Each structure stands twice: as C-alpha cells, then as structure tokens.
Amino acid sequence: MASPFGLNLKTGPEQTVVHVPEWDIPKHVKALVTTRQGGQSLNPYDNWNLALHVNDEINAVNQNRRLLSNQIGKEPFFLNQVHGTDIFSFTTPAGSSIPIPTVDGVITNLNSHFLAILTADCLPILMCDAKGDAIAACHAGWRGLANGVIDKTIQSMVNWIKPDSANKFIEGLHVYIGPAISQPNYEVGKEVRDAFSHESLIAIDLVNTLFTPGHQPYKYYADLFSLALEKLKQLGVLQVHTEKLCSYNHSQYFYSYRREKITGRFASCIWLE
Fold first, then answer.
1. Smallest Cα–Cα separation from 59: which of 33, 37, 39?
2. Which of 37, 70, 125, 248 has a CA positioned 20 to 30 A from the CA of residue 7?
3. The domain 4-181+241-272 is classified under which CATH number: 1.10.1040.10, 3.30.70.3270, 3.40.50.10420, 3.60.140.10?
C-alpha cells in the first residue's frame, strides 16, 4: 500500500489499516499503530475509534477492539490513562480476570496480550530491552513528560529485569515514539514552558527552541517530540526511532483532539510473539 508521510501502511482484516514502525528490534517483538481507517464508528468518531471514554457508541468500540485483536492475534491490555506517572507491572497469567489499571505506563514479559496506548495528540511511547525479554508502553503528554513518566517506565523495566549494569541495560533499550501533535500545531501556555525550564528538565539553551513564541502573549508552540528525545538522551537511551508523524496534520489517518475536539483515539501497540 502507498506509504505517504513516512507511513508504512498494512491492510488487515475487514480493511483496517495500520502503520508498522520500521525499527531495529528483536524479531519476536512486534509493534503497530492503528489508523482511523476501518472499523464501525460513525462521525465524528469515524471509523476505527478504540476508546470507550469519548462518548462513542459502546458496541461500535467493542467491535473495533475486536478487529484489532483479530489483526494481532492476541487480547488487548488497555489502560485508564490520566496524564500521571504511575506504572503497572502486568504479571497476571493468561485467562485471569484483569481489572484495567488507572496508570499511564505498563511493562510486561507475558506473550498473552498486547499493550495498547490510546492517544489523539499526546505521545505514545513503546519500549523493549535489547534481548526482547520485556516490553513497555507509556502515555506522555506535557504533564507526563514534565513529571517523569518516561523515567519511571524505564526504571520499572530496570527493577523488573535487575540487570548487572543498569546503565548498559538502558543504553540497549529500543524506544519508539509514535504519532503525536507537531510543534507548529501545539500552542500551550506559559505554565507548560515553566514546567520544563524552572525545574531544569531541559538545558536552558534548548528552551527557546523547544518552546517558540506564539501569536498571543505568554503563548508558545511546544515540541513534544524533541522534549521526549531530550529526556531519553538524558537517561542514556541510545536507540530511539520516530517518524515524527503529526496527528494534527494527517486527518486521514489519525485522530487529533486539538483539531477536532470531539473525536476518537488510535492505539500504539507492542507485544511479544
């Protein structure tokens, strides 16, 4: 299928369309990002909305989730995302009843489910270690980035694996940053800029680059992708892949809350075969 904007598109069951990241990970680790093409949802959630919390028709969302499960061949593990930094360790054996945790990150070494992060402008971040022994996924808007959701996800992986060298383990991580809103479309207030600059989360010489002045006083355009890349660099992660796909610009493929307000959510998924 044609691959515009850096997308590697694959068609699945019932004409669902997904983007498959082309990143260098262990062969038994798989990932994909859904698009809005395929599915049962009607306007304004058309068509493949996977979120239950946006007032879409519940039966349609459940059918959409089943389409995704059929495409991957596993059951999903969704989160109740709240722009926080709590991380869930998913260790429950397959077949057990699993309540949906209210967290913004999850790690596992199980191959019974796929991990799914729902977004419509925030950053979906997928991770695996060098050997593919564990995978992780987290949801990072500006609050999550500022408060350390990436840091805590990686620390949870270190605590899980207990490597001889935490630094070498982190250096060997593979990280994928999925579609999110790009800087020209993401206007924020002074409080967002201050959250990063006042806490010295980024070097002062980067502040003016990652927060360019908006058209109104005390408004700025924030670069979520570069903020995440800078954080990963600070943590010592060497292998990061992103196409910097903009959810706002590509309305044919991705939902965007900033663009549409009432809209669906797409999923960034990772799993172990």
1. 39
2. 70
3. 3.60.140.10
